[in-house]
Amino acid sequence: MMDEELAGKIEQTALTDALSERYLAYALSTIMSRSLPDVRDGLKPVHRRLLWAMHQLKLDPTTGFKKCARVVGDVIGKYHPHGDASVYEALVRLAQEFAARYPLVEGQGNFGNIDGDNAAAMRYTEARMTEVAKALLLGIEDDAVDFRPTYDGEEHEPVVLPAAFPNLLANGATGIAVGMATSIPPHNAGEVCAAAICLIENPDCSTEDLLQHMPGPDFPTGGTLIEERASMLEAYTTGRGGFRLRAKWEVERGKHGIWNIVITEIPYQVQKARLIEQIAQLMEDKKLPLLGDVRDESSELVRLVLEPKTRTTEPEMLMETMFRATSLETRFSLNMNVLNAERTPLVMGLKQVLRAWLDHRHEVLIRSTNHRLAAIGRRMEILAGYLSVFLNLDEVIHIIRTEDEPKRELIRRFSLNENQAEAILNMRLRSLRRLEEIEIRKEHDELAQEQADLVALLAQTDKRWHRIGDELAAIRAKFMGGLLGMRRTVIADAPAPMVIDATAHIEREAITAILSDKGWVRAVRGAVADTAELKFKEGDKLRLLVPCETIDRLCLFATNGKFFTVRAVDLPRGRGDGQPVRLLGDLSNEDDVVALFPWREKTRYLVASTTGRGFLVSGDEILAEKRTGKQVLNLKPDEEAKICVPVTGDHVAITSKAGSLLIFPLDQVPEMTRGGGVILQKYKSGGLLDSEGLCDLRLFNLADGLSWKQGDRLRTETNLTPWIAARGSVGKKPPHGFPRSGRFG
After folding, report:
1. Which of 136, 345, 468, 531 is most buried, judging by how many CB atoms fall within 10 Å of its CB?
2. Residue 108, Cβ neighbours under 10 Å: how many?
3. 243 bridge partner residues
4. Are residues 625 and 545 in the same domain?
5. Are 479 and 132 in contact (CB under 8 A)?
6. Count of CB atoms situated within 10 Å of the CB of 81
7. Which residue has the higher pLDDT, 699 or 501?
8. Which residue range(s) make up the domain with 105?
9. Which of 105-109, 622-626, 665-669 has the lowest mean pLDDT?
10. 119 occurs within a structural domain
């Protein structure tokens, strides 16, 4: 009846409400079931299900391997209804020694390499668990953790693993969810256990105390950690921060002063093949002038050889340029965003993470102890029934031989329960020998002693934490030795800042920057001898030619009053049309280029707007390292930047669109860092009409006279007294022969 009532029913729902509800469900699913690890075992669901499936297949470290396809099939068929490719990729990562600090899977076959090559198909590879994975599952059969039904309700899977191994910090984790992400670097398991023991012994210890035992990340690919100690302390305290990691290198010297740099370890998650491609591309782009050649001589071990271009180069200088330009130095972010015991996303500090793991181990200990106590109780109950048999052996045999229902008679005669009577009836005849009775009494006494010890363990918190400390010490001893346990990443002091010329990695070469009238910019090698040979898009033409060098920084002044800084070496080269100048900075379609020139140290510039306002600005104040530029000339509505010229001379000559010329001393113009400026020339309407406003401006030496282009020749006027006045005046009509355009030419 209910189904008939619901059939065909349409419920009106606002689209925003429906989208919000469904997207929230998707976000929660992504956060809790895919991207964030559990703080207790450090695993995401897919990894946990992989280990559980391998445990069910009995793929222990001492048994044989099984095809990865079998493992992946069990995982997606029983526990994880997702694509086999993603599940196999997760399994492969667990087996890669360069990806996982402590691999949870031992692979047999091609599982990829540090060059970035993919693993073979899962039908060709085999896998089994490692000792680390076995430690994560230790005690899972003893009711140490909760289980839940699988997605189809036919199987059960663990909610979390017992995790006797500190997997979250030892192997780290990365993931991107909806609105949040996690990034935890791997650490040395022995050091993590030492820090956990310190926290057990002194629950009030600080993060700094913990870092005495666990000084920093320990990446599987080694490298050198150069982050400042204060920064690391803050990162581990708050759970957010980052670590600078550099490749490990050494100088290999040969005969006659020849030397090479050999890189033996590269930063974590850097693919060696792509690193070499990056270096080769930078060499082709002439951005690594100190480097002569790069060779890959790696076998199973990393060995990259860098040859300097000249022997006079300092190895430290070469490597500093390599660190700044390539992935030989990376930054690994720290964002310890995990799911706590209540399955709530939370950013934790180091102490909180260790505390959560220890609390989980404490709960596992209590649950496994109760499970063991229950098992002991059941066994002692059976043993008590056995002992009653040996005390009345003849009578028991008689009852079994003569009674139609011997079980009920045994229960009535000897006050046994169902389990005891069933165990007696199932007892073999050879167990009735005298020696067996002695063994039963011995086992009963041992179990009674173990039961008393476990009851005392549950009754005293100190004893439980002492037991957990002993377990951590055993884990530390097991996984701290050998090649697997020894620290790989060297922790060094932060290097002193090395002063390197910003152009040291650029090959110096004369070029010419070309700006077209429609705003396309490019560069060509050398000087442009004939502008007629330059080609542009249809309808476009030349606006500016800027001779410069590849090491120069070009300053671009726009009509919005902003300065932008562009490296000349970054300008597009070749025979193409270049790229829109707007891509070099955040310029809108309404903005245009006023000036483009190479920056020079200790040079001042005069900037002015269309309304005749302006000021002097130092060259140091116009450099803008950000794409957003630097606002120097503040503009009013309907006003644009018009002029930017370098200061050369002692007087300013300015013309207006209305046809007036004004000359005044340069020292009347103030120097500012930013602002609207002062009035250079006065206009009746303030310069807001098309027929008024600033037309052109020139700086010159009064003693040399003012020059302008008249036809094909240059005219110079030395008698300028009629036009000299105070700044802010209107000016007078220019001398006879001055261009009608009002421009100096």
Report:
1. 136
2. 16
3. 332
4. no
5. yes
6. 11
7. 699
8. 30-165
9. 622-626
10. yes
Q: What is the pLDDT of residue 1?
A: 45
Same domain for 612 and 745, yes or no, is: yes
Q: Of residues 421 and 84, which shows the higher confidence score?
A: 84
Among 417-421, 730-734, 740-744, the least confident range:
417-421
Confirm whether 618 is domain-assigned.
Answer: yes
H helix or E strand, kind and range, residue 173: strand 173-176
Question: Using 50, 70 and 90 to split pLDDT, how confident is the model at 17?
Answer: confident
**Main-chain phi, psi angles of 550, to 5 degrees:** -65, -25
The CATH number of whichever domain residue 458 belongs to comes to 1.10.268.10
Cα 201 → chain centroid:
34
> Looking at the predicted structure, is the pLDDT value of residue 435 above 70?
no
Q: Are 553 and 567 in contact (CB under 8 A)?
A: yes
Full-model pTM: 0.72
Residue-averaged pLDDT of the chain: 90
Residue 30 has phi, psi (to 5 degrees) of -65, -45
Q: Could you give the residue ranges of the DSSP H alpha helices within 416-541?
A: 418-425, 434-459, 461-480, 482-485
- 20 lies in a domain? no
Provide the pLDDT for residue 500: 65
Q: What is the C-alpha separation between 66 and 47, in angstroms, rounded?
A: 17
Please state the separation of Cα 642 from the chain's center in Å: 44
Please give the Cα distance from 370 to 464 (Å, whole number).
Answer: 13
Which residue do the tokens 């010297």 mark?
253
Q: Among 453, 485, 517, identify where a domain stops.
A: 485
Show the CA angle centred on residue 668, arms to residues 665 and 671, nearest 5°.
Answer: 125
Same domain for 275 and 323?
yes
Scored b (16 or more CB within 10 A) or e, 293-310 reads ebeeebeeebebebebee
| Alpha helices (runs of H) in 332-349, residue ranges in sequence order | none
Eight-class DSSP state of 573: B
Q: Look at the block and give the residue holding tokens 């476009």.
A: 540
Q: pLDDT-based confidence at 614, cuts 50/70/90?
A: very high
Q: How many CB atoms lie within 10 A of CB 221?
A: 22
Total of domains in the chain: 5
- Same domain for 52 and 159, yes or no, is yes
Same domain? 409 vs 432: yes
Residues 609 and 724 in one domain: yes
d(Cα 374, Cα 262) in Å, to the nearest integer?
62
Nearest to 664 by CA among 721, 703, 605: 721
Task: Give the CATH number for residue 315.
Answer: 3.30.1360.40
Does the structure show a pLDDT above 60 at 2? Answer: no
Q: Is residue 346 in some structural domain?
A: no
The set of catalytic residues is 124
Residue the block writes with tokens 């059960």: 156
CB neighbourhood size of 75 (10 A): 24
> pLDDT category, 50, cuts 50, 70, 90?
very high
Q: In sequence order, what E strands does 581-640 have?
A: 593-598, 604-609, 613-618, 630-631
pLDDT by residue (tens digit) across 168-215? 999 999 998 888 899 999 999 999 999 999 999 999 999 999 999 999
Per residue in 552-593, pLDDT (tens digit) is 999 999 999 999 999 898 888 877 788 898 888 888 888 999
pLDDT tier at 668, thresholds 50, 70, 90: very high
Cβ distance 371 to 412 under 8 Å?
no
Q: Is the pLDDT of residue 325 over 50?
A: yes
Residue 721 phi, psi (nearest 5): -55, -40
Decide if 172 contacts 185 (C-beta within 8 A). Answer: yes
Between CA 582 and CA 590 the distance in angstroms is 10
